Structures are given as C-alpha cells and as structure tokens.
Amino acid sequence: KEKVEITKEQQALMKIITDAYNRHQIPQDVAKKLLQDQYSAEENFLLLTEMATSQVQVLVEFTKNIPGFLSLDREDQIALLKGSAVEAMFLRSAQVFSRKMPSGHTEVLEERIRKSGISEEFITPMFNFYKSIGELHMVQEEQALLTTVTILTPDRPYVKDQQAVERLQETMLDVLRKLCVLQHPQEPQYFARLLGRLTELRTLSHYHTEMLVSWRMNDHKFTPLLCEIWDV
Ligand SMILES: N#Cc1ccccc1NC(=O)[C@H](C1CCCCC1)n1c(-c2ccc(Cl)cc2)nc2cc(F)c(F)cc21
Questions:
Q1: What would you measure as the largest C-alpha separation in the chain, in angstroms?
Q2: How many alpha carbons lie under 13 Å from residue 143 in its C-beta half-sphere?
Q3: For the whole model, what pTM was predicted?
Q4: Per residue in 211-224, pLDDT tens?
Q5: Residue to mutate, 21, 30, 130, 201, ligand 1, most ligand atoms under 8 Å from C-beta
Q6: Do 212 and 230 contact (CB within 8 A), yes or no?
Q7: Is ipTM > 0.90 here?
Q8: Distance 89 CA to ligand 1 centre (A)
Q9: Packed helices 162-183 and 190-206: angle between N→C axes, nearest 10 degrees
Q10: Over the range 145-168, which residues count as b (16 or more CB within 10 Å of their CB) and which as e?
Q11: Residue 100 CB coordination number (10 Å)
C-alpha cells in the first residue's frame, strides 16, 4: 500500500487556492435572503441575475490566484472563464445548498427554490445534483480544488493551447486525488465519485439557457455581462 503524501509545494498550492476561494465569495448570502422572505418569480429572477453577475466577477478574481493561470494565453484565459462560469455557478449553488444549516432550514430553502420560478422539468435534475454534492461532505480545500479543476478544463470551446491547460489541470488533479485519499481513507473510490460529479455538472449546465428563458415570467432581462457569459 503506497504511502500517499502531499509535498510542501502541493501544500502551498492548496493553501493559495483555498484562501483565494474563501476570499472571493459573494458578500450577501442568497440562502439567508431566501430563508427570510418569499419572493415573486420576477424578484427571484432579478436576484438570480444579480447573484450570477457577481459570481462571474468573483470567478475572474479567483482565477487570478490560480498559480499558472495568468501565464496562459490571454484569449485562452477568457475561453476558460466563459466555458466554466455556468458550471462554477451551479457548483457554488450546490455548495451553498449543502452547507450545514439549523434543522428545517434546508427544507425551507428547497421549497423556496422549487417555487422560485424555475420550470418544473429542471427542478429534479438540479436537486439531484445538489444532493449528490451534499453527500460527498467535501472539506473546503476539496471544494476550492474541484472548482479549480472545473475552470481548467482543456476542451472548452475556442481554447487554442489545450496542452498548457491540461498540464495545469493535472497539477490540481494530483493534489485533489491525494487530498481525497487522506481525507476519506475509508473510501478509496471517493476521488472517482468526486470527478463523476463534474460529468453531472456539465449535463446540468447544458440546461441553463433553457432554465433561464423558461423562468415563469415575461420579459427576461439580463445584464450585459450575463449576455456575454450565458447564451441568452
Ligand atoms: N447564480 C447564482 C449563485 C451564485 C452564488 C451562490 C448561489 C447562487 N445561486 C442562486 O442565487 C440561485 C437562487 C437565485 C434566486 C432564486 C432561487 C435560486 N440558486 C440556485 C440556482 C442557480 C441558477 C439557476 Cl439557473 C437556478 C437555480 N440554486 C441554488 C441553491 C441554493 F442553495 C441557493 F441558496 C441559491 C440557489
């Protein structure tokens, strides 16, 4: 049984990424708002576009702290951001949903989201994903590294130097793999399960345009940044 050991450099890398991930989070907590009041479909849609817009802004700031990201070709940096923004948003939403809350709060939050204006057909796949993320009980380092691995996906549209992105992603995957073995020694398949969630995440993200345009209201307004990032 080979001894899994995180090197000093990998330890430093993990700290940089986890600190940046925690630093670059949206200030106002959307879960708290949703738990406090019930909003109309219009108000919820506006809240979503505000959350998503600031989520993209914090994502840009976060990527600047990924060692090696700024050394990538500038256009490839943009392609990676554009290609991962929706997945990062659902990953963040899943992590918000999976947070430990006082008893009964998760149920209220789920109910509020079910009634927020999202079309029925997307509710089940979305909550299936959220619950499968919750079951993993990720530590914050795993959450930060999983988001980083998602951003560093080489086969996003328009990425020119895929090898450079692949090298960076492999560096992060190696740290994540070791961390999973050390954090979940009783579950050798944990790392594989974690990566399996990224497949579910990509599938869910394919629905995002449909989810937005089918929000139960008329006249869906988007911010210019969201028009850039979302295919709306
Ligand atoms: N965007 C975004 C975002 C960024 C950071 C943190 C949470 C975010 N998510 C959000 O604000 C939305 C709210 C926005 C108001 C109306 C109800 C959903 N959201 C989503 C959800 C994101 C997208 C799409 Cl199409 C459907 C749903 N799944 C959530 C799960 C949670 F537990 C949670 F609290 C909030 C959640």
A1: 60
A2: 23
A3: 0.95
A4: 999 998 888 899 99
A5: 30
A6: yes
A7: yes
A8: 8
A9: 130
A10: bbbbbbbbbbebeebeeeebbbeb
A11: 8
